[in-house]
Please model this.
Amino acid sequence: MNNLSSAEKKATLESITIDCVIFGFKAGNLEVLLVRHGEGISKDKWGLPGGWIYKTESTDDAANRLLLELTGIKDIYLEQLRAFSDPDRFPLSRVITIGYYALIKEEDYDLKAGATAAEVAWFKVSQVKDLIYDHAQILEIGLKRLRRRIKQEPIGFNLLPQKFTLLQLMHLYEEILGKEMDKPNFRRKILKMNLLTPLNEKEKDVSHRAAKLYQFNPETYQQLLEKGFNFEF
Amino acid sequence: MNNLSSAEKKATLESITIDCVIFGFKAGNLEVLLVRHGEGISKDKWGLPGGWIYKTESTDDAANRLLLELTGIKDIYLEQLRAFSDPDRFPLSRVITIGYYALIKEEDYDLKAGATAAEVAWFKVSQVKDLIYDHAQILEIGLKRLRRRIKQEPIGFNLLPQKFTLLQLMHLYEEILGKEMDKPNFRRKILKMNLLTPLNEKEKDVSHRAAKLYQFNPETYQQLLEKGFNFEF
DNA sequence: TTCCTTATAGTTTATTTGACTACAAGTATA
DNA sequence: TATACTTGTAGTCAAATAAACTATAAGGAA
Model:
């Protein structure tokens, strides 16, 4: 499938689209990235970033391209959620959409609404409402996946700044899993995993005892990934 | 999307198909259901049961229909794996396929090759080779999912006969996870979960001490599902 | 200096694992 | 009939883990 003209390359598949659930974390809140559409039947309504797939690209590539085009975000790890295929999910025709999701540090990316998007913004997950089509369902499945995943893989670190305190990390878990935890126990368990590298630095500008800062250690992460582990706190 | 003629109902989507990975378990071996195609470009080659999706049905419905048409198996719980979207996966045109998987008791179903299938049969997973298109990859992903799932949900019971011994169950785990286990410890752990109902029956026609038979208890299963659990043995 | 908040260390008890040993209940065979 | 053999089932024990706490340290703020 090479040697195609530019127009041919941009030919899209008819009945399949992509939609992305992008999670971020700020000020103790789990957030999701939404776009207000600038054209089409969903004009001026908020929904997940997504769109049509070129005939020449994989869905993984399509997800990355669409996200860049719509929001300015690029080079992130998008994982497939699943296909959403209710025959009536899209009002104009029969369209199956493939959901993707990702976790990113909000601070690392500048949002920039692309050509077909009127606006891009982060919304607290707990306050999202009135999404187009079945996007609420896709978000819900994304959230479920995130909750399951965070208990089995240390993916939470993708949501925090480079340097963070143990309490920030614990709050992230509390927010995502929706339950309170015990500080000393959390400390002990997470430190024993050797997943965090302590830094010779402390928090600044806090009105109480400053906590030590830590960094995520990608090497131990790889080892843990292979032998499997349990993050149930 | 109602009030359509029969021909309209059978119109299919152009670039999407379904493929099913159906696992069974017999004589200590994990098996997978394959069909030898009777027509099309994959005629006479073995592959996963699958096919085209009607415009009026969800992918879940399509998976069930196709499985029935091709193999005679119906009313089973099929779970979606994910979409497979390599632009070159299908030689004739750009087609994305959505994988499904299921676990069934082989004894409960009679195989019957449908109109477009020349033959249907169970194959030991360890001995499968030369599947059409990217079906080997789909099978592999299905197997990975099975291994992950069986550690977190008591799905293994779908593969055993109604009444089974603890050793049979342990062998199932050993086969799927590919590692040996300790009998007494396995007993203790699985029994404590209250997931099995002991029967007043024993094995028959065995040339050694007969083991007690157990049954799966769907009620406790529901409870366990909700609060989550860990089947790591 | 005292109070308040958060960080961090440590204790205690119950529970869970993993690696074993021991014995029971059958069948096969000598 | 006795003995060996195979598999089932019960129990032991030490080590690791988890959950619920208590206690103390380190700051800033009043």
About this structure: Residues 157-227 of chain A form a domain with the Arc Repressor Mutant, subunit A fold (CATH 1.10.10.10). The CA atoms of residues 165 and 207 of chain A lie 15 Å apart. The two ends of chain A are 49 Å apart (CA to CA). Chain A has a mean pLDDT of 90.
